[in-house]
Predict the structure.
Amino acid sequence: MTQQQHRPDATPPARVLSVNLGRAEPNPWKNAETTGFGKRPSADRVHVRAPGPKDGGLGSGLVGDHVGDRQNHGGDLQAVYAYGAEDLRRWAERLGRELPPGAFGENLTTEGVDLADCRLGERWRVGSTELVVTVPRMPCSTFRGWLGVRGWLRLFTQDGRPGTYLSVAVAGDLGAGDDIELLHRPDHGVSVADAFRAMTTDRDGAAALAPAGAHLAPGLRELVRAALAGTGREDRLF
């Protein structure tokens, strides 16, 4: 991420390897008629909507990307999903199968970014867009069904590298090959991996997310508030 990379010695530099869009397909694994999980790389640059009156009532996200279950996916806090190419390659080796960009349902397949170490609330510039790290991805039944791997939800959760959702702060266009520039990184120290553990395997440790304060999404905020209840430290969220 230019001069403020998550790993200053990272090779290759932080960039978008692929921008991936999903089309509507049947979803037999969830109480939803369709899914856009099967994402494929776009050969063209893609416009990204920001929330507001100019989103055409569709909400923020990538133009042309289908979201089938809008109750649990999409929305302004989950407008864009990023997953690392390095992690895709690692899973491909572990599972013994090809996992091309988009295989995990990600909009942005990134390279040179340690997404698990990203801080909640950090802000990126990608192409002419600006994106903000919000919450980790939670594995769901569609993810499990699409991959067809026995015990997949457990395996993915134990791995602890879920990728991250991003909100759209500034609308614009992005495409494969764009640099990922880190514009701002909060100093609270709470990472995507920290949040994922608090949401899955270590709910008792949710209080450790409190320093992220205003950068916590509502669901995370409630987890932290519950963990802090009765400790006299509830004001750490503000």
Remarks:
- The CA atoms of residues 196 and 202 lie 9 Å apart.
- DSSP finds five helices and 13 strands in the chain.
- The longest strand covers residues 15-22.
